[in-house]
Design a protein that fits this description.
The chain has about 280 residues and is an alpha/beta fold. It has 11 helices and 12 strands. Helix content is about 40%, strand content about 20%.
Length: about 280
């Protein structure tokens, strides 16, 4: 009788141990299903939206970091601290390829001058825009809006958005911004600060990506330049020229979850998400 009880007890313990092993294995598997992404702050809003859609479909979480500058992002990818590096303007494809990495071009994102929802102006000419940043226009009524002070914002001169707008708008190329222009802190980790500042400042204007505008829930709107809106048709036709490409960089032999995410991004479903976030899908 005692032997029967001892055998039953050992069987129960074995079952419990087996359940613990299965639970641990399941937890470990779930942990391995999280995809870590970090890098260019300009690409982060779009990748976050793609990650959310992918997670809803696959059950694999995509965690987007707060931003890493170029050297740090590729070191993190090489050292397997992240699974995917985000990149944008200035990516040196040959260099990262030599490091055993693969570059995936995923989208072309317009850079826009976005305004706070309180601003009743839908467009500006390049001349008016330059006058704002030079400090000559300080009230929205000067450019056809209501009587409200203009709160101009800019990124630092080294930031990709500023490089694009200075290269594309002749009167901004060498313009010294007025002291009243609020310049955001440099670096990928501070990219999101522009959208936050514009959404929280009545009368504000500043440069940012269309994905930030689309995700602002109506707190921001993109204004047209010289009557040209930053929509997909105008970008494709070359009429709207303020754009920057978005890249995802993986190791040459990515894990199955990473490959599945890249495949999703390049699929028709991924293109829909990209379009819904104000960008144009790019297929290689």
């Amino acid at each position: 009788m005692r032997n029967r009880h001892q055998t039953a007890a050992r069987t129960d313990l074995a079952l419990v141990a087996g359940m613990l092993v299965l639970t641990f294995s399941s937890t470990q598997t779930n942990a391995q299903q999280k995809i870590m992404v970090d890098g260019a702050g300009a690409t982060a809003p779009l990748v976050a939206a793609l990650g959310k859609a992918f997670a809803a479909k696959s059950g694999i979480a995509v965690e987007v970091g707060k931003g890493l500058d170029p050297k740090a992002r590729f070191e993190a990818l090489a050292g397997a601290k992240i699974d995917i590096a985000m990149a944008s303007l200035g990516l040196k494809v040959d260099e990262v390829t030599r490091r055993g990495m693969t570059v995936h071009t995923i989208a072309r994102t317009p850079i826009v001058f976005a305004v706070h929802e309180s601003v009743k102006v839908d467009g500006l000419t390049q001349v008016q825009l330059c006058a704002i940043y030079e400090g000559k226009h300080r009230n929205w009524k000067d450019v056809g809006g209501s009587d409200m002070a203009i709160a101009a914002h800019s990124r630092s001169d080294a930031d990709g958005d500023v490089v694009v707008v200075r290269d594309s708008i002749a009167c901004l190329k060498t313009l010294k911004f007025a002291d009243s222009v609020k310049v955001m802190l440099p670096g990928s980790a501070h990219y999101a600060a522009m959208g936050t500042a514009l959404a929280g400042t009545p009368g504000a204007i500043g440069m940012t990506g269309t994905s930030v505008v689309e995700q602002s829930k109506g707190k921001l709107k993109a204004i047209a330049l010289d009557g040209v809106a930053a929509n997909e048709a105008n970008v494709a036709a070359g009429r709207y020229r303020l754009t920057r490409d978005a890249f995802l960089v993986t190791r040459n032999a990515p894990s199955a979850p990473v490959k599945a995410f890249i495949d999703f991004v390049k699929s028709a479903e991924g293109a829909q998400v990209i379009r819904a976030n104000g960008a144009t899908a790019v297929t290689q």
